Amino acid sequence: MALKTLDLSLFINGRHETRKTFAADLKEELTRHGFVKVVGHGLSNEDIERVFEWNKKFFRLDIDEKAAIAHPGGSDPQRGWSAVGKENAASLYRTGFLKTKMANTLKDSREHFDQGSTKDSAYPNRWPHERALPGFQEFMEEWYEKMEKVAVCLMEALECAFQLPRGTFLDKMTHEKNASEARLLHYPAIDIAEINQGAVSRIWPHFDLGVITLLFQDGVGGLECEDRERSGHFLGVESNSRSEMVVNVSETLQRWSNDSMPAGLHRVTVPKTFEQRNSGIVPERFSVTYFCKADREALVGALPQFVPAGSKSKYDEITAIGYHQSRLKSAY
To answer: I want to staple 290 with a disulfide (CB 3.0 to 4.6 A). Which of 147, 163, 242, 284 is the partner?
Structure first.
């Protein structure tokens, strides 16, 4: 089964019926698979090529430059650089929705850079010195705002698909209080023998914590989403082009929808060409994500529109920041 590709420009520029059709297709694919591919999102090929160029430039900085802006760990929103192995997705999976018994010795082989909104004074961004990477901060701040606009369009489409009053989702994820995060990811080249030992993966299976996640990836491969029709199996999410965006449902949207739209379980493993190999070096991989999140003080229990009369919410009321902090404690 291949993920369906939807054209967001039909919603952005289309007439009423065209917008309704796109919204219905988006809802169907995300509800069924937790994932969908999106084109026509409005981001130029030039911008996408440039963000991958900046991605590579950042991770090729001297270790001292990256260490100077290292995220300290803990439960606060991530800012700056997290070294290889610093964040552990297996812990998020083990303590999250599925509460599996995965070993606590499993490690991820990736490093990442995280940034928040320029309006966020509570958790300011950590930028490399301008002399070390001139132009990086300016570009990434502009990139963040462009990704925010795409996320707003997708969430507006979901409001339409669920026939919700305008603002049901979007009033809880405002521009002024945007708590979303943009992330650059680098998976260093790794010996396949180390992967085959079973203690290290590029990212172990996990759910994202926000509302939805937007992702661009290079052509190396390895991203996989759960096959909900075959328990325990995963499907490759291959990249047909860098401009193809992958969108997945995250935990907050599952909570808001009272399980009507389950979060998408996913992982990053070795490319298909390495699956049966015992020797060789798996090439480095780069990706770019935008974790669309609720405002920190927004409540993330089930919304009343998703709780039938006479039923109870499956989720307790808690603020988005409270929920995220309770989950992030396990990741570092």
So the answer is: 147
Burial bucket for residue 94 (CB in 10 Å: 0-12, 13-18, 19+): buried
Rounded to whole angstroms, the Cα distance separating 109 from 195 reads 9
Lookup: tokens for 180: 């979303």
Q: Give the number of other CB atoms < 10 A from CB of residue 74.
A: 11
| pTM beyond 0.90 | yes
pLDDT given for residue 264 in this prediction? 95
Using DSSP's 3-state secondary structure scheme, residue 14 falls into coil
pLDDT digits (tens, 9 = 90+) for 249-271: 999 999 999 999 999 999 988 88
* Ordered alpha helix ranges (H), 34-88: 45-59, 63-67
Distance CA 261, CA 302 (A): 11
Total Cβ atoms within 10 A of residue 79: 21
Neighbours of 130 (CB within 10 A): 11
At which residue do the structure tokens 């969908």 appear?
Answer: 36
- 330 with 74: CB under 8 angstroms? no
